[in-house]
Design a protein that fits this description.
It contains 14 helices and 8 strands. With 325 residues, it is α/β, with parallel strands linked by helices. This is 6-phosphogluconate dehydrogenase, decarboxylating.
Length: 325
């Protein structure tokens, strides 16, 4: 099957390679041609600009956009809608806000252009293991691209038409929020074990948990490699960014009045990781000192040697009043 492809970043390039490997003809382009040679070496054909798809692809055409969410996606989809013809199919496989996808489905229907929103999971491992594809839109359009979805996913179990327009990106948003929560739970568990003073081998425990445990997962498989390479993570700073889906999930949960404390805690933990000496924490320390005489640490005091300042498990912190709060 012939397909156009916009975007040759880490995921986009691997998706192109996987499609070519499975016998599809891919015509690709991107804002920058810096990875053109890599795409061509993989067997794809490079085209100059979005308008070229109308020439190189036979109608009805299909073009997949795999660019960063936000303005880049908006500009790409609008340009594709302008350059393609009625009946052509446009796919947004990036991490777009489902509310934007809902609007785009309505806009594309008026043109008229077919449109699918596809939540894509698999990251840099998708080339080898296949991608998980969550697809929203019209059933006829989904069926038309079934060979493409199966090639990317590796099997028909790896992709699904989850619902109408915007459903694909909605399900992907929830998927990523669940991912945030799982990662945070693992992180807290491993930190508790790291600070136990028992000399626990975290990599060995990650491997152990992946054999028969109810908490086994691919994330734990990745953790095995992480702890094997750097058992105490001494080569990293503990700053954790977020890509937006966790925020959208919380906004959606609030609007629907759905309690989502795990999502919120995981997202806020990422915010906290970006503050080395938060004003709020200094305020809390000062307030506890004023009402209870609890010890405070002056700004000029050295950081504890282990960087944690933690007491032994179960022991009270030295210098603190027994009137705790």
């Amino acid at each position: 099957m012939d397909i156009g492809f916009v975007g040759v970043g880490k995921m986009g390039m691997n998706m192109i390679k996987r499609l070519v490997k499975h016998g599809h003809r891919v015509f690709c382009t991107a804002r920058s041609a810096t990875r053109r040679s890599e795409a061509e070496a993989a067997g794809a054909q490079w085209v100059e600009g979005l308008g070229a798809f109308r020439t190189v692809l036979a109608a009805p055409r299909a073009v997949w956009s795999m660019v960063p969410a936000g303005s880049a996606t908006e500009e790409t989809l609008q340009a594709l809608a302008e350059s393609l013809e009625p009946g052509d199919l446009i796919v947004d496989g990036g991490n777009s806000d489902w509310r934007d996808s809902r609007r785009r489905h309505a806009e594309m229907a008026r043109r008229p252009r077919h449109f699918l929103d596809v939540g894509t999971s698999g990251g840099i491992w998708g080339l080898e293991k296949g991608y998980c594809l969550m697809i929203g839109g019209d059933a006829a359009a989904v069926n038309r691209l079934a060979p493409i979805f199966t090639a990317l996913a590796g099997s028909t179990d790896g992709w699904a038409h989850v619902g109408p327009g915007s459903a694909g990106h909605f399900v992907k948003m929830v998927h990523n929020a669940v991912e945030y929560g799982m990662m945070q739970a693992y992180a807290e568990g491993f930190e508790l074990m790291e600070r136990s003073g028992l000399g626990l081998d975290l990599g060995r425990i990650a491997t152990l948990w992946n054999h028969g445990s109810v908490v086994r997962s691919w994330l734990l498989e990745l953790a095995e490699g992480i702890f094997r390479d750097d058992p105490h993570l001494s080569g990293l700073r503990g700053r954790v960014d977020d890509s937006g889906e966790g925020r959208w999930a919380l906004e959606t949960a609030i609007a629907a009045e759905v309690p989502a404390p795990a999502f919120a805690a995981a997202l806020f933990a990422r915010f906290a990781s970006r503050q080395e000496d938060a004003f709020a924490n200094r305020f809390l320390a000062a307030l506890r000192h004023r009402f209870g005489g609890h010890a405070i640490t002056p700004a000029t005091s050295p950081t504890p040697a282990d960087g944690s300042g933690a007491a032994a498990p179960g022991a009270p912190t030295a210098g603190h009043s027994t009137n705790r709060a």
